[in-house]
Amino acid sequence: MSALQARLKQQRVDLKAALNPIQDLATLDDLTGLANRRRARELLLTEVTRVDRAVQPFSVALLDLDFFKQLKDRFGHAGGDQILRCFSEVARASV
To answer: What distance in Å separates the CA atoms of residue 48 and residue 53, rounded to the nearest whole number?
Structure first.
């Protein structure tokens, strides 16, 4: 491998490493760390395509926090944020 090829390869590696945090900002919710709507849609489409090819059963679960506004009204924005963080940690650990 020539010096130019090695340098180009290293630049690609560096660029990919630099793009990872930017991609995270674009696809993850900064409060919970969970996939945002855009990323969830991408993941869902990828999985639907995969299971369609493999002819496998597939299910999706959507979760909703009932009465969340009342919790935020009672505990404030910081309390509501903490509730969302805790809920996301439990959801992530359960999946």
So the answer is: 9
